[in-house]
Design a protein that fits this description.
The protein is of the alpha/beta class. It contains twelve helices and six strands. Among the domains are: 44 residues, no CATH class; 111 residues, no CATH class. The strands form two sheets. Strands 3-4-5-6 form a four-stranded parallel beta sheet, with helices on both faces. Strands 1-2 form a two-stranded antiparallel sheet. Helix 7 crosses helix 8. The two termini are 25 Å apart. GO terms for molecular function: epoxide hydrolase activity. It comes from Ursus americanus (American black bear). Keywords: Hydrolase.
Length: 297
Amino acid sequence: ILDTFSRPHACWPVWPGVRICAVEQGAGACCPGARKQPDLSTAVFLPSLCPRKKPRSLSYSGYDPVRDGIRQAVFIGHDWGGMLVWNMALFYPERVRAVASLNTPFIPANPNVSPMERIKANPVFDYQLYFQEPGVAEAELEQNLSRTFKSFFRAGDDMVTNKWLFAGGLLVRAPEEPSLSSIVTEEDIQVYVQQFQKSGFRGPLNWYRNMERNWQWGCKAVGWKILIPTLMVTAEKDPVLVPEMSKHMEDWIPYLKRGHIKDCGHWTQMEKPTELNQILTEWLETDARDPPEVSKL
């Protein structure tokens, strides 16, 4: 997010290759935020934000920050962050100069199909059903944080979704001592471990438990289109957010630009930082520089 945050530019310990793009591309500070992992990006990049930026309550919709006084920004999101930035562009186009999503397609809310119905119809989303009961997934994921994150952070070639389809838990079929993936270091894993020892998984899992409320809110925008500069980056080997899910986005986002990264799994910015930076930089220097057309029609 490029905004007017007063913190001077610095080389924060971002994933290899990513920090160069974040720090050197143009004026304005870079304010990273990962609300799905509340203590990760805010603790690693901007520690002062940690105490007040966690989605601890299910009543928090995720869109209150638009009132914080930043006039306009470029938003780039991944996974749940992608969902958030698409809805920023949809509901608050006057506050959004441009928006890009990594892996997460824009799927408009369908008043006739609830999120739970959609999830139950697609087995690849079974894990989201498992996340619904408060306390259950937290207990499993927090039992051995090193094992959890080493199991999660895998490159596209060694992440197999059907291993997650359930036999009593998310990590039942994972090794007790997973090998370290090529996309992370032991130091990276320990950053996550230290932060989640403080926060736990309740905040991240609440995103899944709040889907019904967000869907009800999203239904207010039925028929609206996104007409500001936009970019959709798909990853060939993401086992859940498959590129095919982004088909027909142009029906709702007529000026959409696209980027595609081959041989890349879910953790795009970690697995292919050079390729991703090239796509983002070219877009930021062209389409994202143009004044946005503000409309909800």
